[in-house]
Design a protein that fits this description.
The protein is of the alpha+beta class. It is built from 4 helices and 19 strands. Strands 1-2-3-5-4 form a 5-stranded mixed barrel. It starts with a helix and ends in a 21-residue tail after the last strand.
Length: 350
């Protein structure tokens, strides 16, 4: 398997599938239909570039938008106003900050982009909704592609079903090839991880080894050596696994960066160490401050966090959202199944 295909297989597609799962979960918990759902929507208003629609879900009326194709000169002829029509549409994406639902009509002859997000694209194919990655590696922040437009036709590499009428795939064979894009990323982010051993004859009979420089955003093979040491009353994040990178350079992996199946375990860090202690893993070297972790949250928003089993000075539970951000939960706001008292009484373990 070539390096580009390996990056797609090991990073891009698993990351994309995690995004799809989070999108589905958020839709369910905000009482919206999951992306990929087919609905019958009533047209409420026609704008120059959008069609406004309305549909019902679980007895609730929900507003949505459908992006129109660009009209050719011949099509730009005023038409008589039609009565409100009902259309069969596919739910594409949900902007939860504005409660705007993006929908699209099915395409029978091609695959077209219908929504553009930073880390992924949504397309409609004859088979249904297809998610495409723009982010090919966790440590890679994709740049805006100005050539990419709504309704652009794309070619797909073998789509993989991840639900009823929902697929993940990569672009290939057309103007954009995701495997080719990985080569551009590699030139920027992958450092030289080979150790250079000089023969003793060249060093006056003493064997020497050149120090290895670990580059920021580099991708390396490291060995899991245990849980990060946490000092007593430490206020910084501590839910990390220690990784030994080439040249005995230290590295850390936060629980929020584990695969989604491990994040859903009762104790993600313990499970990760059980599965990988003293084993080799692929890890990226990056300063946490260089990653654009979400920092703006609204009241009522659902946030995945991980309990650190420590208390604040106000006897609140400390939780960690990612390598940079922490939070607190008052004990009275915990459900009963999360309250476990120690033998000494008073220490709450999540």
């Amino acid at each position: 398997m070539a390096n580009g295909e390996r990056m797609i297989e090991q990073y891009a597609l698993p990351l994309l599938e995690s995004i799809v799962e989070e999108v589905k979960w958020l839709a369910e918990h905000t009482k919206h239909p999951a992306p990929g759902t087919k609905v019958d929507a009533k047209v409420t208003k026609e704008l120059d570039d959008l069609t406004l629609v309305e549909f019902e879900h679980n007895g609730k009326k929900i507003a949505g938008v459908v992006h129109k194709k660009e009209k050719s000169t011949e099509e730009a002829v005023p038409k008589k106003k039609k009565k409100a029509a009902t259309k069969s549409l596919i739910v594409v994406d949900i902007n939860h900050s504005t409660s705007e639902v993006v929908l699209a009509a099915p395409f029978v002859d091609s695959t077209r982009i219908v929504a553009i997000r930073r880390d992924y694209l949504c397309a409609i194919s004859p088979e249904g909704l297809v998610y495409l990655p723009t982010r090919l590696h966790p440590n890679h922040l994709p740049i805006t592609d100005e050539k990419l437009k709504i309704h652009s036709v794309v070619d797909l590499n073998t789509p993989k079903s991840v639900g009823d009428g929902v697929f993940v795939a990569t672009r290939g064979g057309g103007d954009v090839d995701d495997v080719t894009r990985t080569t551009l990323i590699a030139k920027t982010f992958i450092g030289d991880v080979k150790k250079i051993q000089k023969p003793a004859a060249e060093t006056g009979g003493v064997s020497s080894q050149k120090a290895i420089s670990i580059k920021n955003f580099g991708i390396y093979e490291g060995i899991v050596i245990g849980q990060a040491t946490v000092e007593k009353d430490q206020k910084k994040n501590g839910l990390f696994a220690e990784i030994r990178l080439p040249g005995d350079n230290p590295g850390r992996l936060h629980v929020s960066e584990f695969p989604i199946n491990l994040q859903n375990c009762e104790d993600p860090l313990a499970q990760f160490l059980k599965n990988n202690l003293h084993k080799k893993v692929i890890a990226g070297k990056v300063r946490a401050t260089d990653l654009s972790y979400k920092s703006n949250y609204t009241i009522g928003e659902l946030v995945k966090c991980f309990g650190s089993a420590t208390l604040t000075d106000n006897q609140e539970i400390r939780v960690e959202v990612n390598p940079l951000w922490t939070g607190t939960i008052s004990r009275e706001n915990l459900s009963d199944d999360l309250k476990v008292e120690s033998a000494e009484d008073g220490i709450v373990d999540l």
